[in-house]
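One such given next:

>
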Amino acid sequence: MMNTAYDLVVIGGGPAGLAAALEGYSNGAKSVMILERDKELGGILNQCIHNGFGLHYFKEELTGPEYAQRFKEMLRDTNVQVKLDTMVLEITKDKQIHCVSSEDKYSIIQAKAIVLAMGCRERTRGAIGIPGDRPAGIFTAGTAQRYVNMEGYMVGKRVIILGSGDIGLIMARRMTLEGAKVLACVELMPYSNGLNRNIVQCLKDYNIPLYLSHTITDIQGNGRVEKVIVSKVDENRNPIPGTEITFDCDTILLSVGLIPENELSKSADLTMDRRTSGPVVFENMETSVEGIFACGNVVHVHDLVDFVTAESQRAGRAAGKYITDGQPKSDAVIEVKQGSCVNYTVPQKIRKENVEKAVEIFFRVNNVYKDVVITVTDGEKEFARFKREHMAPGEMEKISISKALLEDVSGELTVAVVKE
């Protein structure tokens, strides 16, 4: 068993982990280690061969592998160490990381600071309880994406997609380009959960119908999927009898939500937020355990990798500062609450003294809204308001609150969306 010590250990070598490691290295962490369970760095970006990445960060349009490659090249100019094919089993509160790999067998690494960047996983058929037979041919959209784009396998010829998350929409286009017939994209909610640009580029451009307020109510097949029954749902999301549509197909792709990958966070006994399914974080992405930071999809599911990069750089910077300067003062902590129409807020806590110029608050709304105002209040006084023409659950929102405004706040802030 090998015991080693590092200033900063980053768990996960996807876009969040790469950005956090580079920023930590540039801000005081002399020895940095990235632990990645896959055989190469890049995470989910390696299978996202479509473009649309990097428009905010690099100001140009890149594919997923190109975006990852930019960060891998930056990493080469540093002394950051990388351990691939390494599975982290447990993190302790005193920042010990228990991991296993074929090269080093079982090892314990001691860190001064840790950044959690494990990303997220897909919700499966078992998690949503679709009735019917259990034949072959049912995949999560991300698994199908890996098979098609990285392993070179075609997963099916006649396809139904359940859910209109971004991966599902992108796979509708990908399967069509590979010669499959995508019969329909079926969405339980009365609105799509994907970015508007993906609805246009992946469904409308290929004449793939989108059935809103519909869901799969039966799967039939002996050995392989043969038929899928789709029904309209009422306002309580219950299927309406007599609205059934039957599709002859051989494949179902599930794009029914992403869940932050937080088994390790729980092993470190971090305070979790049931709304995001990620850890509760401060303004600098520090969790409830001193010296353990979290960023990217492990905190909350992002829609653009550019935002993951920016958030992860904030976590890496804070980890470097923690290693060199110790714990920041936290005399006054503001709790950030979600008000009407808001699903969650990140960060959940703000330490006034630790804000340099402004703090960014990220959130998602619970429905589609037009011509609304985002309000920031402390229960009585309104501190800020921001107009929005359009808001949707598929698109993450961001507002910035200046340090000067925070000076007058004590106790808590509430972010809400109201009609103009």
Notes: The first helix runs from residue 15 to 26. The chain has a mean pLDDT of 94. The two ends are 62 Å apart (CA to CA).
